[in-house]
Write a structure and sequence with these properties.
412 residues; alpha+beta; Arp2/3 complex 21 kDa subunit ARPC3; Heat Shock Protein 90; 3 domains; 5-stranded mixed sheet; 12 helices; binds adenosine-5'-diphosphate; binds magnesium ion
């Protein structure tokens, strides 16, 4: 029994290890297809080499990959597994084919239903939920089997207990491994991001100041020159253009400077919703030019210590991006919502703009990433750096042509 149990465990480890070695670093556009394929292989291997109990019964762990894929992947991803499982099972035939079919259909219908809630849970709760799902479904399966077997003898109960503990135990182990991998990937992304920010802010601090002064002087003299009566029309145009370009350069420098600002100077005790409302009023004229409406709601006012300049800048950047995303669609509504959940302030900024693809979302926050002609690609970088500094999190949900939602959590 032990050999076959270990063998089954090895089959289940197989997708985890392969993913870890070969696919962890790939962008996630096709990696989940690979995972479904690997799980299908693991499941088939489990069916092919079942665990033989000494008392003569056999059972296997095929439902572990099935349940895990159902929970993480939802209906779309578990469907191939469902088909493979049943085709294989009908091909093998024999006792219990119909029960297996009915059971897998039930699991297929019920479990993925909770998938969307499941993926939003935190890591610990996911492990608990997956284990509970595994316990309940397999427990239910064995329970229904007890009606089929007339002889409800001791051996049957030994089988049941063995099978159930094995299922639950292996599910816990596999879930811990999966969650650990997810946590590692997230940590690494965070580190890369903060490294990026460090480099940028160091550069920003040293270069921005040096550049700003000559820029101001030059643009001052150009403005004087522009007033001169002896300039021809052409020359005037050149000066105008130079001034425009200088303005652009100044904008980039001041965007940069916002990273370099020392934090402690601006620390204030203030009200977060007042801050949001204040920044909303600043941005209102910009919104109305672009035919964008702003809806603002908050349930509670929160007082907290934070760097006011940076937080304000951060909200303004977010609003501006939202408005600019809707400008291209000729208008829309920007929803701003602030609420309190447990120890956190939750800020929800939603637009009905052009949206982003998954790939574009993954590039958010990289220096100079911008899809706009006049864009600097520093706004999102600044937002990420500010939110990281206050140990908050940003989640982005977006659909192309539908809109974007930024969900920001700031701990208090
Ligand atoms: P910029 O606004 O100067 O282009 P940002 O760093 O603020 O730079 O934004 C980077 C890019 O992220 C934008 O060019 C845009 O493509 C994308 N983006 C940011 N926010 C949104 C949004 N709300 N909707 C759609 N795209 C967005
Ligand atoms: Mg921007």
């Amino acid at each position: 029994m032990f050999e076959t149990l270990l063998l089954n465990f090895l089959f289940l480890l197989f997708p985890v290890v392969i993913f870890l070695i070969f696919f962890e670093n790939r962008p996630n556009s096709y990696s989940h297809k690979v995972l479904v394929l690997l799980s299908a292989v693991a499941m088939s291997l489990c069916i092919a080499k079942p665990i033989k109990l000494e008392i003569g019964f056999i059972f296997d762990l095929r439902y572990i990959p099935f349940i895990i894929v159902a929970l993480y992947g939802g209906y779309r991803n578990v469907l191939p597994l469902y088909l493979i499982l049943n085709i294989y099972r009908f091909y093998v035939g024999g006792d219990g084919t119909i029960q297996s079919f009915l059971f897998s259909t039930t699991v297929m219908i019920l479990v993925p239903y909770f998938s969307q809630k499941f993926v939003k849970l935190n890591s610990k709760h996911r492990i608990i939920w997956a284990t509970a799902t595994s316990f309940l479904t397999i427990g239910y399966y064995l329970f229904t089997l007890s009606f089929v077997h007339e002889a409800l003898n001791r051996q049957f109960w030994i089988l049941t207990i063995n099978a159930l503990t094995t299922y639950v135990g292996v599910t816990i182990i596999i879930m811990i491994l999966i969650e650990k991998i997810i946590a590692n990937i997230k940590n690494r992304d965070r580190m890369v991001q903060s490294e990026r920010l460090n480099v940028v802010s160091e550069l920003a601090a040293s270069v921005s100041h040096e550049i700003r002064n000559p820029l101001t002087v030059t643009s001052g003299f150009l403005q004087l020159l522009n007033k001169s009566q002896t300039l021809t029309l052409d020359e005037k145009e050149y000066v105008e253009l130079s001034l425009q370009e200088l303005k652009r350069a100044e904008k980039i420098v001041s965007d940069y400077l916002s990273f370099a600002k020392p934090q402690s100077e601006n620390m204030v005790y203030s009200n977060m919703s007042a801050e949001l409302e204040y920044t909303k009023n600043i941005i209102m004229p910009y919104a109305s030019i672009h035919k964008v409406e702003v809806e603002f709601s908050f349930n509670n006012s929160l007082n907290k210590h934070y760097d006011r300049n940076q937080i304000q800048q951060c909200f303004i950047n977010l609003y501006k991006n939202g408005i600019e995303a809707m400008k291209e669609k000729g208008g829309g509504t920007l929803f701003i919502d602030i609420s309190e959940r447990g120890q956190n302030i939750i800020i929800n900024i939603q637009d009905t703009g052009i949206g982003m693809t998954k790939e574009e979302i993954s590039r958010l926050g990289k220096p100079y990433y911008s899809t706009k002609e006049e864009g600097t690609g520093l706004g999102m970088l600044m937002i990420y750096s500010t939110i990281y500094k206050v140990k908050g999190t940003i989640e982005v949900e977006s659909e192309k042509d539908k809109g974007t939602t930024f969900l920001i959590t700031i701990p208090t």
